[in-house]
From TrEMBL:
The lineage of its organism: Bacteria, Bacillati, Actinomycetota, Actinomycetes, Kitasatosporales. This is O-methyltransferase. It comes from Streptomyces flavalbus. Pfam families: Methyltransf_24 (PF13578). Its EC number is 2.1.1.-. One of its GO terms (molecular function) is methyltransferase activity. It is an enzyme of class 2 (transferase). InterPro entries: SAM-dependent_MTases_sf. GO terms for biological process: methylation.
Length: 212
């Protein structure tokens, strides 16, 4: 969720040509006065990650479907995508946007609904499961990701220091993901004011058997 994500699509010099499905989702977000859409920089990253994904994809926080449209536009044909939106009105409108894409499912409700269909090759945590608020504990990548699956957590402010800080204090949610023992994680700066954390599951370790 980007605070000015929808407005970022107003400048054609920064957005460039958009996939038609993304343009439709942006139009829906504008029509309903929704400002928190996935930014173009993040969308292009999601598009690229989805194109290299061979298995199911999940997203929390559909909004009006902008991020999901980037994912769907990039994913190989037949890839199953699931997105969860807690606002039933937004979920219904987003679901209508994807009626021509039977491989895409928009679920109304809490983000925990994605656990019913896990594991995923690509998981985008945008509307829940990030751990950014005290009432939102972070999702468990060992349950939600396939071995070597990728998790994406966006909308961080770039920090030049270690540990990373936000508003002058240690950024504990970001540290949680950057130091997660089940992930190889890095931070990517997509714009001067926008960073995204990418984590790849390290795989399921196997205990070696002693020689008989």
């Amino acid at each position: 969720m980007s605070l000015s994500g929808t407005a970022a699509y107003d400048d054609p010099t920064t957005t460039g040509a958009l996939p038609p499905l993304v343009q439709r989702a942006v139009t829906a977000a504008r029509a309903h006065g929704f400002p928190y859409s996935c930014r173009p920089e993040q969308g292009r990253l999601l598009h690229a990650l989805a194109s290299a994904t061979g298995g199911p994809i999940a997203e929390t926080g559909t909004g009006y479907g902008v991020g999901l449209a980037w994912l769907t536009s990039g994913a190989p044909p037949g890839t199953h995508l699931i997105s969860v939106e807690r606002d039933p009105h937004r979920a219904a409108i987003a679901a209508e946007l994807f009626t021509d894409h039977p491989n895409v499912t928009v679920l109304p409700g809490d983000w925990h609904h994605i656990t019913d269909h896990a594991p995923y090759d690509l998981l985008v945590l945008d509307g829940g499961g990030t751990g950014k608020t005290p009432t939102d504990p972070p999702a468990d990548p060992t349950h939600l990701l396939t071995p070597h699956g990728t998790v994406v957590i966006d909308d961080f402010t770039p920090s030049p220091t270690w540990p990373p800080t936000h508003n002058g204090t240690p950024d504990h949610p970001r540290l949680h993901w950057l130091t997660h023992p089940a992930l190889h994680t890095t931070e990517i700066h997509l714009a001067p004011d926008l960073a995204t954390v990418l984590g790849r599951r390290t795989g399921v370790s196997q205990r070696r058997r002693s020689p008989s």
